[in-house]
Amino acid sequence: MTQIDVIAPNLKRRLSGVTATVVRLVPIQAREIGIVATGPGLPAHLPHVALWRLPFLPRRTRVWHARRNTEMLLGLFLRDVLRMRLKLLFTSASQRQHSGYTKWLIGKMDRVVATSQRTASYLERDCDVILHGIDTDSFTPAPDRAALRTKLGLPEGLLVGCYGRIRKQKGTDAFVDAMIAALPTRPGVTGLVMGRAVGEHAAFLEELRARVAKAGLTDRILFLPEVSVDKMADWYRVLDLYIAPQRWEGFGLTPIEAMACGVPVVATRVGAFEEIVTESTGALVEADDPAALAMAAAPFLDDPVRLAGAKRAARMRAETDFRIEGEAAALVAIYRELLA
């Protein structure tokens, strides 16, 4: 890289969805434009410049791509106080009314991107909508699902999964209740809960385990330990149906990851799910309604022909509309417009 045209700050040391977005996108964008990340807690392989070096970079116009309030504020300081020649871009993933302070920051940006149409509806200015994408070359259907299930020690029959952090906001209890309702009349179906419950959420997980035990379904609704990111694709590949039961979500990548692995999705109408899941790839229900989740899952669990068609459609939609290369290219196009 001969010059730096774009700076992607990450001012939060702890891993978050924003950090993961920076880590996923920057290496791909670096193939097309001079981009670096800056800030703590980033992997060594990422193109990077130290925060303290920013004011000493050769003087030229650059794009500052912020994704948090703190990053917008730092961009303003660098531009308006230290007089760096920056064009300020902000990506908003929030789906709630912004505070007056956040509105003020957003108003100072040169350009704004929203991660979904719903997110855009909360912005009081024009914006570009660019949905997140994933690596559809890594998330793919299994060439031999039976062999993979055996390798992972999973039972035969249909598998329904719910992955991610275990907490009330994520609707893990709604998934468990939906499985408790659906499984007794479907002896060939097993539910899988995978994720981590930390801090105050540990008691929530224990309550769910007790609820499953009381229903006599301990061997049919399995609680699995969290696995590393590089192993997640295999756990999607073994599924027949994925359920995203969130009560609230900023965006939500898990439905796309499941679909890329050829798995239909039943999701709640939160986050970007309404823009991801279609009638051909799954179903949508209102949040906080376990009975609706069970009812929406039933046609896929009971009709092999419909399930097979939805699996094909899910993979096709992920490949067509949610490749991370598409997200990266759309952002690079905005960078170039700002630099021009």
Which CATH-level-2 architecture of the largest domain? 3-Layer(aba) Sandwich
> Quick one: overall form?
elongated
**How do the strands line up in the largest sheet?**
2-1-3-4-5-6
Give the beta-strand count: 12
Q: Write down the CATH topology of the largest domain.
A: Rossmann fold
Radius of gyration: 22 Å
The helix/strand series, from N terminus to C terminus, equals EHEEHEHEHEHEHEHEHEHEHEHHH
The CATH homologous superfamily of the largest domain is named Glycogen Phosphorylase B
This entry's quaternary arrangement is: single chain
Main beta-sheet annotation = 6 strands, parallel
- How many DSSP H or I helices? 13
N- to C-terminal separation?
19 Å
Number of domain modules: 2
Low-confidence regions? none
Q: How helix-rich are the residues, as a percent range?
A: 25-40%
The helix-and-strand class reads alpha/beta
Strand content: 15-25%
Class of the largest domain in CATH?
A: Alpha Beta
Mean pLDDT: 95
Concise description?
The chain is of the alpha/beta class and about 350 residues long.
Characterization of this structure:
The protein has 340 residues and is an alpha/beta fold. It has 2 domains: 6-133 and 323-339, Glycogen Phosphorylase B (Rossmann fold, 3-Layer(aba) Sandwich); 145-321, Glycogen Phosphorylase B (Rossmann fold). Helices cover 40% and strands 16% of the residues. It has 13 helices and 12 strands. The chain has helices at 17-29, 69-81, 100-107, 117-120, 145-152, 172-182, 201-214, 232-237, 254-260, 273-276, 290-302, 304-321, 324-339, and strands at residues 6-9, 35-38, 62-66, 86-92, 111-114, 128-129, 158-163, 189-194, 221-224, 241-244, 265-268, 282-285. A 6-stranded parallel sheet has the order 2-1-3-4-5-6, with helices on both faces. Helix 7 links the parallel strand 8 and strand 9 (221-224). Helix 1 (17-29) crosses helix 13 (324-339) and helix 6 (172-182) packs across helix 11. The two termini are 19 Å apart. The mean pLDDT is 95.
